[in-house]
Specification:
By secondary structure, this protein is of the alpha/beta class. The chain is about 50% helix and about 10% strand. The protein has 3 domains: about 80 residues, Conserved hypothetical protein from pyrococcus furiosus pfu- 392566-001, ParB domain (Alpha-Beta Complex), CATH 3.90.1530; about 60 residues, Arc Repressor Mutant, subunit A, CATH 1.10.10; about 100 residues, no CATH class. It contains 12 helices and 7 strands.
Length: about 260
């Protein structure tokens, strides 16, 4: 099938995407793009599909907004008959080509291809050129609690730190560590140490449960959860740890510096 012809479509006859995959559009970027179009012209037409006697944007929403900013009447476009599944794929592939795509936007794009487009992991890999590992990683990220997704998307922590901390099965402790991770900008290596200390503590608790011990005695004998102090590297009980995960002695030193 030949490629659709490029025609000029009046802006007043065009509707924005029904499900824009970009979570946000920076107005300053639209102004920059508009100035580029004013100087160099539109380098690539947008893609539209007929919809209810009008035209819906398949991709090229930012270029459309830039034309509106410039006060232009029409925009160069290709028009193609597409079903909803095809539109999902077109938008996803075009969206993934953005250099400034955030982790959350990328994860949302793969999820749309999977859930709305009904695509398999293999099909998403072929359509996007991404690896199986990348697709699965971002789909797991999309299923994380909102506070984790927001922390990564805002740059508070990297995706690797989120992947480490999400393995903590204590919701309260996990939330506290996430807060401390964002406040202190920890690395994945540090997050792995926290989780490793937690898992070792859990293993210690389970080993103490062996033998003829009543439930009441067992609860009073369970070992507390320890993490590593980032100053002196000694163990410190998590309930006594400060935001930087320091023991009591190091905390006093920090306060007096």
């Amino acid at each position: 099938m030949s490629n659709p012809k490029i025609v000029v479509v009046p802006l007043k006859n065009i509707d924005p995407p029904s499900d824009a995959q970009r979570l946000s559009i920076d107005p300053s970027k639209i102004i920059e793009l508009a100035e580029s179009i004013r100087e160099k012209g539109l380098l690539e037409p947008i893609l539209l599909r007929p919809m209810n006697g009008r035209h819906e944007i398949v991709f090229g929403h930012r270029r459309f907004l830039a034309h509106q900013h410039l006060g232009l009447d029409g925009i160069q476009a290709m028009i193609k008959e597409l079903d909803d599944t095809q539109v999902v794929i077109y938008r996803a592939v075009e969206n993934l080509q953005r250099e400034n795509l955030s982790p959350l936007e990328e994860a949302r794009t793969y999820n749309i291809m999977r859930e709305v487009g009904g695509m398999t992991i293999e099909e998403i890999c072929k359509a996007t050129g991404r690896s199986d590992f990348t697709i699965k990683r971002y789909l797991r990220f999309w299923r994380m609690p909102d506070e984790f997704k927001k922390a990564v998307d805002r740059g508070g922590i990297c995706l690797g730190v989120a992947e480490s901390l999400i393995g903590v099965d204590d919701p309260f402790l996990r939330g506290e560590w996430l807060r401390m991770a964002v406040e202190n900008g920890i690395t994945k290596a540090v997050a792995d140490i926290w989780v490793s200390d937690y898992q070792k503590s859990k293993a210690g608790k389970r080993s103490e449960g062996v033998g003829d011990v009543s439930e009441g005695d067992l609860s009073s004998e369970l070992k507390p959860v320890y993490v590593t102090c980032q100053c002196c590297h000694d163990p410190v009980e998590i309930r006594l740890a400060k935001q930087l995960i320091v023991c009591q002695e190091c905390s006093k030193k920090v306060r007096h510096q």
